[in-house]
Write a structure and sequence with these properties.
Belongs to the class-I pyridine nucleotide-disulfide oxidoreductase family. The chain is α/β, with parallel strands linked by helices. It has three domains: 171 residues, FAD/NAD(P)-binding domain (3-Layer(bba) Sandwich); 106 residues, FAD/NAD(P)-binding domain; 111 residues, Enolase-like, domain 1 (2-Layer Sandwich), CATH 3.30.390.30. Helix content is 32%, strand content 23%. The protein contains 17 helices and 21 strands.
Length: 484
């Protein structure tokens, strides 16, 4: 293909879940589509994030549940079988091979060019292939940037020499370090602290603020308590000021914090946020700044490109940095590109087929710690900041018969946010074992804008944890004379 410049209706940069879904939807709309990828098809989620991390965590959570069930405790008293856990992780990450993804791409008639793709002017992409060729691609209708994010490492002297772990090294680890320092308090930090503590590491967390700071405060507090009960040393108010690997760069890592505290560990994991993967994709050739986020309008067009051919979908646009949300955006963006190519009007009203309303109103998230955390929509504070008048309804999930059946000593909490003007649920947070399975019902309630009066007719089966919905409605009805 050297020296050629094939034309497609759509050129997609990045074959993670977002890029794959977008390519699938544009192809389904009848548009010729090519996808460009310089790593593994399936991206971060399939090979270094969602899939391998949850494979590491599943045995941890299953053992924790079993330890609370009479008749099972003795069977799970011993340590986890680390080689078996890693073998399961390897299988869930497809042993870091993407043949199945390539086969799927072919089944939906999307072309693939492997290599590093860069914009090269309006509607033009140049790909440097692994064998040194340069392939030029032209987009008739759209170029979609779906390149995602990379770990945002702090600017610390000598950090590269320490060979720090990011999510990639943590999820692909071949052995369990005796001592692991985790820097950060977000989802990656708490999930990997949970996993490696259960696998046998002595874990120290260095956290500048609190844990899970973007969620309801009680979520971070309950996860903190559980981590400490598991033996994790959680230290708040700590910012890392220096790192050094001892013994000429081959020994343990000494981490120094701004208050003079030190932690010595065999490995240090930095889980301090994400940065856009846009530094070397040719943005400068179309008048944009390399290395920055790509803000978009609600049709996922980059507004600085007046001709309207450049789209940014998934994490790279900084709207909602989660795999499932990127796939949601991709489904909508693919339909938008297809409609525009055919000259069809957009259904872009709230909750319309071409509107990404969930990005702002109903983003779901699960944190696979012990206990689990599941949420959708705004927190109480976020709702109030958005100008909503809301009622906050809390309930102790441990009082539910289904929770008692699930595990002895079940500890959990539910919070539902009700818009007092419209009398519908706008947000929900659940913390406790097994609560991930409560999330979709909450998401349906939020996106459907179901009035609380109608929710009375959604009867939860007995005895299940989902009966918490009934208890929440009863609590709301009986609080401050509010009828429901």
């Amino acid at each position: 293909m050297n020296g050629t410049s094939p034309a497609y209706d759509v050129v997609v940069l990045g074959a993670g879940p977002t890029g794959e879904n977008l390519a699938d939807r544009t192809r389904a709309a009848g548009l010729t589509t090519v996808i460009v990828e310089d790593e593994l098809l399936g991206g971060e989620c399939s090979f270094w994030a969602c899939e391998p991390s949850k494979a590491l965590l599943r045995p941890v959570l299953a053992r924790a549940d079993a330890r609370r069930v009479p008749g099972l405790r003795r069977a799970v008293e011993g340590p986890l079988d680390v080689p078996a856990v890693f073998e399961h992780r390897d299988a869930m990450a497809a042993h870091w091979q993407d043949a199945d993804q390539v086969e799927w791409l072919g089944s939906v008639s999307v072309d693939l060019v492997r290599g590093h793709g860069r914009l090269n002017g309006p509607r033009q992409v140049v790909v440097e292939t692994p064998d040194g060729e340069r392939v030029g691609l032209t987009a008739r209708h759209a170029v979609a940037v779906c390149t995602g994010t990379v770990t945002a490492l702090p600017d610390l002297p000598g950090l590269a020499d320490v060979r720090p772990w990011t999510n990639r090294q943590a999820t692909a680890a071949r052995q369990v370090p005796d001592r692991l320092a985790v820097v950060g308090g977000g989802v990656v930090a708490v999930e990997m602290a949970t996993a490696f503590r259960a696998l046998g590491s002595e874990v120290t967390m260095l956290v500048r603020g609190g844990l899970l700071g973007r969620m309801e405060p009680f979520a971070g507090e309950m996860v903190t308590d559980a981590l400490r009960e598991a033996g994790v040393d959680v230290r708040f108010g700590r910012s890392v000021s220096g790192v050094e690997r001892e013994d000429g760069g081959e020994g343990p890592v000494r981490v120094t914090t701004d208050d003079g505290d030190t932690v010595v560990a065999d490995e240090v994991l930095f889980a301090t946020g994400r940065a856009p993967h846009t530094g070397d994709i040719g943005l400068e050739t179309v008048g944009l700044t390399p290395g920055g986020w790509l803000p978009v309008d609600d049709s996922f067009r980059v507004p600085e490109i007046s001709e309207g051919w450049l789209y940014a979908v998934g994490d790279v646009n900084h709207r909602a940095l989660m795999t499932h949300q990127g796939k949601y955006q991709a489904r909508i963006a693919g339909a938008v590109i297809g409609a525009r190519a055919k000259g069809e009007p957009l259904d872009d009203g709230m909750w319309g087929r071409h509107a990404p309303t969930a990005d702002s109103a109903a983003v779901p998230q699960v944190v696979f710690t012990e206990p689990e955390v599941a949420s959708v929509g705004p927190t109480a504070r976020e709702a109030e900041r958005a100008g909503l008048e809301v009622d906050v309804v809390d309930y102790d999930i441990g009082k539910i018969a289904g929770a008692v059946q699930y595990a002895e000593g079940y500890r959990g909490r539910a919070r539902v946010i009700v818009d007092t003007a419209r009398r519908n649920v706008v947000g929900a947070t659940f913390v406790g074992p097994g609560v991930q399975e409560l999330l979709y019902s909450a998401t349906v309630a939020v996106t459907s804008e179901v009035p609380v009066d109608r929710l009375w007719h959604a009867v939860p089966a007995f005895p299940t944890i989902s009966e918490v919905w009934l208890r929440i409605l009863e609590t709301y009805r009986d609080s401050d004379g509010t009828a429901a």
